[in-house]
## 1
Amino acid sequence: MTVSRRAVLGMVGAGAAVVGAGAAATVATRSPAVASDTYPFYGPHQSGILTPAQDRLHFAAFDVTTTDRAALVALLQRWTAAAEQMTRGVAVGAAAVPYDSPPEDTGEALDLPPAGLTITFGFGASLFDRRFGLQRQRPAALVDLPHFPGDDLDPNRSNGDLCVQACSNDPQVAVHAIRNLSRLAFGAASVRWSQLGYGRTSATSTAQLTPRNLFGFKDGTANVKAEDPTSNAAVWVQPQDGPDWMVDGSYLVARRIRMTIETWDRASLREQEAVIGRTKQHGAPLSGGGEFDAPDFDLPGRDGQPVIPFNSHVAMSHPDRNNGAVMLRRGYNFVDGNDPLGRLDAGLFFLAYQRDPRTSFIPVQAQLARGDALSEYIEHVGSALFAIPAGFAPGEYVGQRLLQA
Amino acid sequence: MTVSRRAVLGMVGAGAAVVGAGAAATVATRSPAVASDTYPFYGPHQSGILTPAQDRLHFAAFDVTTTDRAALVALLQRWTAAAEQMTRGVAVGAAAVPYDSPPEDTGEALDLPPAGLTITFGFGASLFDRRFGLQRQRPAALVDLPHFPGDDLDPNRSNGDLCVQACSNDPQVAVHAIRNLSRLAFGAASVRWSQLGYGRTSATSTAQLTPRNLFGFKDGTANVKAEDPTSNAAVWVQPQDGPDWMVDGSYLVARRIRMTIETWDRASLREQEAVIGRTKQHGAPLSGGGEFDAPDFDLPGRDGQPVIPFNSHVAMSHPDRNNGAVMLRRGYNFVDGNDPLGRLDAGLFFLAYQRDPRTSFIPVQAQLARGDALSEYIEHVGSALFAIPAGFAPGEYVGQRLLQA
């Protein structure tokens, strides 16, 4: 018996074509990706980074449980093959398996189009230990993140040898991807922590509207966009950066940021806007203009102080105050039920790609943790940094340049 | 400053109109509801029951923390007013609030259309105690659910005085609804437990395709559909059932069913299909035909035994084996990260509406818990039963007929 997403899709082909045409009209409010979209799996860079941010996320960090380098290579080969199939909207594995064997694909995405699925792989610092002889290949930029003031990190929500970011416009497609990759890892790696994000918080393309975070504010207005002429240099490791296997890769910072939204909700609109430095309704800088107008940090208000407070989030995080440091933000809102006090366990799963965290995330976060007015309403509870290797060509597997280096 | 979803929507009106027209084309694969859809808030029945199942869910159960009946009434009045606004896509509260007060609406759905939002309220058995003098109004059908074999219920995921089911085709809209209702409950009720569902598992309209659950099978093929001539009598409390305040209401069973998907994934396709009684790819009964053909439970296979095993899920749950008992299923897939062993904390958040649980859910579940082959792969970890009062007219608040009875 054949279990093939392509076969199933063929049967509803007429309907699927209609979807593709009609769904394009949703660009204005949500994401430029439509249900039938596919993004390239092969190329100089991995997809899921400069790709227009899809609406849904399933992210997982893994501990490698084998100490056999060949088994690690085999896992990465299995993952590469399966991810290539899933991003095409095809079921994982062989087209036909014996009826008395478990299906190779778990099946819950059988009828679903690719829905813009991208799967992005990364390596944590802990992978570069003696187990696999990779110590000398550890990039200098793959540091251990420092402790920032206010951090309250849960080790069970932090770090990991490997990571997989699955983004899609259909949550079932993203969940299916992580589930099948977890299954293929059996005996070689197991999930250390995972996070679902139900809605993107960043636009990564000028074609996307700026979404709102759980504080009710537009978030990431000034984010690096794929169309920006500077985006390549901000995101991708350059030849002079090294090591060779990381060229055309990137570094991903993942932070689980709990928002104390009940406290925030009791703050006045004046306080909320002063903390952010933008208006709530339109996302315009408090210095005036529209959402995309540059903030004027010197414009004085009636009291002679800047109308955009010095310690506001927009001021503290602005590149002008951070030696020009920029990151490609790609975070997601999350709600994981509630805590024992009945407060929503909710916030921002911050994801940011950058050429070198030592000159972008780390100094920016050090400044925010010290002085950002927003710090009063948030808490960082999970943290990880991953090296995201370059893309690859057909026949290559993810990380091959590292493991053959 | 005015914070009005309608005002904001007005500004993107041209784009939104395009969405409405275009998104209709997605009916074929997902839900008949489009982003700009609204469902009526007033009427003889609450919405969110026979309404075509939306794609996303946020559900919350509350403990009432006040013992003042007037404060309970005031809460239900606030909830009714806010729910009416949100289902229209309008921000909660007054159109304008002082700049030095907290915004009445939390804002994260400001730019979003109603996205088919429905908000459905219910009352748990514990509400009918001495605190509010409601003991004599407790419906006979609002029983304490019995213990079923295999139940492993977490009290922190079970029961509650009140419940709110928010369904929408945009998860941020559903989350926004529960968050704002939780906020309006401050001082009168607090969240006891909550559950996000990322994808519907049931069709409740013949216009919807049957979705797949996390076992990879189409689920709820034989579900009661709104268009079925029997649906009214299966779902709504009739005048002869009583009490008066429940007529045109319903009863909601909520069960958090953890699926041990790692075990399931190791079962052969033959075993999986025998457990369910249907084919995995097409959802057809093992006795032949297509998805919507009636199963033939007597058709013998080569070994002389029925091709649809007696203990298969489709056989054990079929109305013919349950004195004709039917329910309107409206459940959702959930994934809440992973457990400490790296297994996905995932499964089905089972929601089922019915006229009387004593003749539908309870006997059906008693039979399934004893004999369903699927029981080996699932575990019920949360449970609740709520009385869902009838709909209401403008000027009325939810539960008014109960509290004035």
Note: Residues 1-33 of chain B have pLDDT under 50 and may be disordered.
## 2
Amino acid sequence: MDGEPGFQEDIGESVSHHQTVAELGEQRLLALLQSYGDPEAIGDDAAVLPIASGHSLVVTTDVLVEDVHFSDRTTPPHSVGWRAAAANLSDLAAMGATGIGITVALSLPPDCPVAWIQQVYQGIKDCLHPYRLSIVGGDVSNSRIRSLAITALGQVSPGHQIRRDCACPGDAIVVTGSHGGSRAGLELLLDTDQSLLLGEAWRSQLIQLHQYPSPRLDCVTCLNRLHQADVLTDLEIHIAGMDSSDGLADAVLQLCRASGTGAVIQGEKIPIPEALHHWQTPQRAMEWALYGGEDFELVLCMPPQAAQHFCAAWPAATIVGFVTVEPSVYVDCSNTAVSTGAEGNLPDLLLTLDRGFQHFKP
Amino acid sequence: MDGEPGFQEDIGESVSHHQTVAELGEQRLLALLQSYGDPEAIGDDAAVLPIASGHSLVVTTDVLVEDVHFSDRTTPPHSVGWRAAAANLSDLAAMGATGIGITVALSLPPDCPVAWIQQVYQGIKDCLHPYRLSIVGGDVSNSRIRSLAITALGQVSPGHQIRRDCACPGDAIVVTGSHGGSRAGLELLLDTDQSLLLGEAWRSQLIQLHQYPSPRLDCVTCLNRLHQADVLTDLEIHIAGMDSSDGLADAVLQLCRASGTGAVIQGEKIPIPEALHHWQTPQRAMEWALYGGEDFELVLCMPPQAAQHFCAAWPAATIVGFVTVEPSVYVDCSNTAVSTGAEGNLPDLLLTLDRGFQHFKP
């Protein structure tokens, strides 16, 4: 987003909601996009940002394409922006990093309504707001289909970096929140008839989980405190982790594969949104919790004592299992009858990577 | 580009050039792309990169879309990658920054040949090589059209940042190399009949300027030395500047607009590739030099003594004019008869922003 010093006035007010990109023109579009960014950070040809002394830069990129990652049917533009930002902030959190800012590269057909862009940018801005982050740059291009490529920038003190390859047998596996809700929300949006079976409050809750996931950048401070905690100074604190953007099963499998370990997950411990239990069978709820994806929680492996401290500090966190020497990843469902309220337990599951989310899968 | 520890083998050798993305599959595609990146930098969920103490982070993003920024007709895939990287490195140079690395977000239809992607990535890698930079991360997505969003990361010591708004009347205007060649090369590629009028050596030279522009990141060390030079310690050194990616005229106009100044350019001083003089009229050569764009040189404003030092250190650099109090930007062509070998001088020109490159122009 190059500097356009002649267009510093507040352009937001002067744009009609019925205008298209072609009608607005490139210069005014750039000025409009800049009005959503941080004027302090956006430089002439590039953004210039301070970074804390002794910290490393962390960078992650995601591209979202219309009809692949979002569609008008399931994702209003404000949510498109929010989800794009959330996915990237989640990757920063998965590295143990705090945020610096994001850049947005936007591709648009000339007939794209300006109102769509404004809502996307507002969604990005609203997602960044709780973390005091802002849009620090970007680019815009003509294209036959809409897409967003977001790059998030963060920083981490080298000792606090969260890796995937350091889970140890005996570690507790902690999730920072519930799983399955995003997939359930998507199903409700795709099949509105299903929505009628569920009360409006439950329905809204699940749709909210799909359209407005909270990236766990807010957990990073908690995790950094674990490293520093006095009570733990005698222990060797290691934290392995990643986010559950491709599903809880995928996260546990990736962590185990990178660390050369296995895991046992206790099925009844996996937090699943109550609304989902009201709507689906225990089997289906478990399937969406494991394989649904896009819940954007963190899946962390750490010594049990550290895990207890973390769960005390982060109330939504739950210990769902343990890392094992044996390399396979099992879900033990022998206590699920009680947790699901069903008559019998679910069958135990052996997790495999091939059920994970793949964009190019035939 | 998330870590895929199970695919660390050299996948490059095992890919057939006739395969498509769909045939290769997402996991193997990610592994292939990773083989072009820096294994030291690519982290699990994001890249982690050191940054020099006391330096600020510089970040710039460009998106390139098929049939808007490149097409099979004019840009072989190796050049698509090169040009995308060059455009971003040029933005870093325009800020006075040195490079850290780049991320690449790729959108592809499933029938895209893997060989096309390999050549794009090789082009990016080859462009980065002289600056010891590498691909540090990225993402890949299914899309109906091919596009690349590149984010370049750099660092700058705050005192060495090049801004647009600090050009002063009396400053010399320096360009780091010739202009018009990229546009001339594009014309040759679009109209092969024209090529027949020009010898093969001239033709190749102009096409090379279009397909393989050199970003002026190599000038940054020279500019930093200017700041430090003993001979200049008595002077207040300010350097205003930007790159000429949208044309030399646009760069001078933007610098003057941001600085509240004007400029006089001496037409005969603008370096134009010799091949262009052999092919086009002096008028056409001047038009392409001023408005052609994508030459990716730097346009710098600095005190005349500093400019002389810089030109001595960077032989391709030329002083082409001076910054004025009067806010208009003129090209004085009263000495162009000699430089062009034409019978008379070109008419003087008053430059205006509306002729610059606009993607959404009707």
Note: Chain B is about 35% helix and 20% strand.
